[in-house]
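Hello Y.,

Per our agreement to keep a running log of every chain we model this quarter, I'm adding this entry. I've kept the format consistent with earlier entries: sequence first, then predicted structure.
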Amino acid sequence: MDTAMKENKMGTMPVNKLLLSMAVPMMISMLVQALYNIVDSIFVAKYSADCMTAISLVFPLQSLMIATGAGIGVGMNALLSRNLGAQDQDGVNRVAINGIVLYFCCFLLFMLIGIFAVSAFMASQSSDMNIVKEGTVYLKIVCTFSLGIYAQFCFERMLQSTGKTMLSMVTQITGAVINIILDPILIFGPWGLPRMGMAGAAIATVIGQCIAGILALCLNLKCNKEIQLTKFHSISPSFKEMGKILYIGIPSILMASIGSVMVLLINTIFSHMTITDTGLTLKEARNNAVAIFGIYFKLQSFIFMPVFGLNNGMVPIVAFCYGAGRRNRMMQTMKLSVLYAFLLLFIGMLVFQLIPDKLLMLFANEENAEHILQMGIPALRTISLHFPIASFCIISLSVFQALGKGFLSMGVSFARQLVVLVPVAFLLSLTQRVSNVWFAFLAAEVISITLCLLAFRYVNKTLISKIPVEQA
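Predicted structure for the entry above:
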């Protein structure tokens, strides 16, 4: 038996200490990523309004790139941890090598999109030639040179799957910090350097991703002995192994895409809604409603990103315990994860309830501050009511993925966002009061937790209950 696998901390360390040791670094790195997204937008917005609009329009394609990387990572992470738990070293190596092949295929796909399709993509969304030009410049760079982001996803997930989340945190923070440092330099061109605008923002992003990816690879080769990347030459790519990764990962990809579609549809509802409860002109009310919805998503990332980091730390433990037949440790991990997620989101709800004005003013200026506060304060207070309920839903969906039930997780997410949230928002929009629309989030979460409880009951009956209870 391989000594490194036998002594893996996911099978020996006390569960609470293990969960915190794996989750806290991921939570910190996710917060850094959230900060980077906001800072990046601030720099671009200061460069020009057209560039800010272009950044918003490139979101669907860029988010698809991130979704594919994260989704494949979920599949690879779960299978790596499961094979580690089952002490199958050959299985670990096969998953790692085939995961690398899948990520390289993603790079080739988006490189072709960057070369041949981004101009048409931007032209389909805007008739403003300057906005189309700026967005095309940005997308050509980030898509054509997407090898960096996929290398970062690939090798960071390998570190996470073996419990080395502190090293994964280092690579993520390194990439984000480099990006933040390079953004103002390449965008604005101080000290006589060329003023590159959107191209500079894209180059800064690519450089940060490439350096993070290289660092993650080096850390795997040096510190991650449980995954033997040096045996790449002795393992052939396998469609069967890649299929296993995609079977778990595709639901995550689709779930991320569902979120993008949901945002698009909610924005469409606001853009065509007759709003009568604001005292503003119809155009102003619609624009402010869309703006507040966007502000909400930026703000809630700081609340939900730590929970997603908790998820990233939990999934390898659950998958490892499932592979090792450690039912008690698996259940204890799930219960602690739900508790911590509830506490984080309850605190987030309190912040949104107590200081919504201060949060909104981060994104307001002298011209629109009054209107943003008027419409935004009730919006943040209403939407945040669903935060605590979401804690169980978020954790349970990730548990389903860790246990190989990714399509079950996808089904619940699809039902919540497109079957419930969007139709309820549309029906509430018929009241002509934008303040009513925000209650759609609470309604969707109530339905979601009901579905999650039913799904968990099914998973417990068919999978978890069949694992023998280990003796203390």
